[in-house]
Amino acid sequence: MNMSPESTLLLLLLGFILGWLVSKRRSRKLRRQLRFSNDYFQGLNYLLNDEQDKALDIFIQLVEVDWETIDTSLALASIFRRKGEIDKSIKLHQNLLARPSLPVDYKFRVLLELGRDYQLAGWLDRAEGLFNEVLKDDLYEQDALKHLMSIYQQEQDWHNAIRVALLYQKKARDNMRPVIAQFYCELSEQAYEQGDAKEAEALSTQALAVDPNCVRASIMLGQVAIDRGRYKKAIRFLQQVEYQNIDFFPLVLDKLVSCYRNQSNLRALITYLKNTERNHPKLSLVETLTDLINEVYGEQAAQEYLSARMMEHPSLDGLKKVVELNKPAADSAESYLPDVVKQLVEKQSGYQCEHCGYAANTLYWLCPSCHGWGVMKPKEMS
Ligand SMILES: [Zn+2]
After folding, report:
1. For every one of its 382 residues, what pLDDT tens digit does the chain have, with 9 covering 90 and above?
2. Which of 133, 151, 218, 374 minimizes the number of CB atoms within 10 Å of its CB?
């Protein structure tokens, strides 16, 4: 069942009140309880009437009267934060922290929550300070490490991101290797942009040592080798992608063509790509292979390959090549076909996140929508 934050809060508050009324029946406390109960309903009333500032003040006062209401206050703060009203969430958390009587069990939890408010508000230095303090507490240490990692990611402070990810991996026994490898790749790209190819190579090699399936590192090493004219070495790195993650193979196609072309060895590339296509039925190399076969062995061989391939695995990009090779005459009734098929292929191209479905024409190693690493892939051509 999906409930809105408001309904969740309402249930939470009613549940609390019922429990509280049942558990505290002693008559000598009755007067105080009644006042307390009235305040509670008043606070609830303000919330329902959207007078949140007044509600906030009441709940802050109630916490002082009875620390048992702290969970309700924390829930309220988290609803404010989810609604984007971070100032209110900050006010509530700061107020809780300012009370000398704050139960020690709650201190680190409130610090963590306030850190999350600060991070969302963009006060990263303050958030970092609070999360570092929370590291002292065993119960919330892992949460604090996760938030620190996301701050360093936001600040593109990759050295600290690696340090914290390693700590988190150790504490949580969670496999962070693919993410740590991405951090090394970020450093590698930075080094390459600054003209330090050696450092870029060393960092990408480090990424592969951390995660041997890091496609991004192999592509980087391939690109550095191409730029230095070391095509054999580049081919070795680029071909690794086939075994690391075949979904990313379309990313290395053009680079492979350029390497083999520079080595005047396109025949070997055709053999290699045909094998790759055979080994991975979902992968479509039909456009590249048709062009290469046409260039090396002539149009008849290209037509033969293409028709055999289309009989076996019909695909839109294959159809595009069929129309290209058998262009209708400009004055024929079918002259519109090449344009239509081209547009259909373009609609299917690009990249998409396999977690959240975010689609773009550029590949982002960190999905801008769900913030997952290495989850955006070239779209599958069908
Ligand atoms: Zn995503």
Report:
1. 455 656 666 666 666 665 555 555 444 455 555 565 667 777 777 776 777 777 777 777 776 656 667 787 888 888 888 888 899 899 989 988 988 888 888 999 999 999 999 999 999 999 999 999 999 999 999 999 999 999 999 999 999 999 999 999 999 999 999 999 999 999 999 999 999 999 999 999 999 999 999 999 999 999 999 999 999 999 999 999 999 999 999 999 999 999 999 999 999 999 999 999 999 988 889 999 999 999 999 999 999 999 999 999 888 888 888 888 888 788 887 888 888 888 888 887 899 999 999 999 999 999 999 999 999 999 876 6
2. 133
CA angle 105, 107, 112 (to 5 degrees): 115
Supply the Cα-derived Rg of the chain in whole angstroms. Answer: 30
Q: Report in angstroms the alpha-carbon separations of 291 from 77, 183, 341, 343.
A: 61, 37, 17, 19
Could you tell me the CA-to-CA distances from 226 to 171, 213, 328 in Å, in that order?
Answer: 40, 21, 39
**Cα 114 to ligand 1 centre (Å):** 27
Domains of the chain in start order, with CATH, are 5-172 (1.25.40.10), 175-240 (1.25.40.10), 350-382 (no CATH)
CA of 305 to the centre of ligand 1 (A): 37
Helix (H, G, I), strand (E, B) or coil at 360: strand
Residue with tokens 């549940």: 15
Rounded to the nearest angstrom, the distance between the alpha carbon of 374 and the centre of ligand 1 is 9
Give the Å distance between the CA of 143 and the centre of ligand 1: 22
**Separation CA 359–CA 370 (nearest Å):** 12
Distance 376 CA to ligand 1 centre (A): 7
Half-sphere exposure of 109 (CA within 13 A, CB side): 14
C-alpha–C-alpha distance, residues 165 and 125, integer Å: 19
Cβ atoms of 71 and 59 closer than 8 Å = no
CA–centroid distance, 247 to ligand 1, in Å, is: 16
Q: How far is the CA of 307 from the centre of ligand 1 (A)?
A: 37
Q: Burial, 198: exposed, middle or buried (Cβ in 10 Å; 0-12, 13-18, 19+)?
A: exposed
Measured in Å, residue 233 CA sits from the centre of ligand 1 at: 33
- Residues 194 and 221: beta-carbon distance below 8 Å: no
